[in-house]
Amino acid sequence: MRTYDRTVLLDKVLDGSIHPELVFTQEFDIDHINDAYDAMDKRRAIKSLIRF
Length: 52
What we know:
The chain has helices at 6-14, 33-41, and strands at 26-29, 48-51. By secondary structure, the protein is of the alpha+beta class. The protein has a domain at 19-51.
């Protein structure tokens, strides 16, 4: 695993070079954060996006 500088990655996200939404497989609101963790634990989601 490589270590990346967060500021470099953030700049790439902000300029559109990296699309982080491709990593998230399910989306939950903040009231269902436990469901998000459960989905990842049970392998129904790779990464859960939490909307505030």
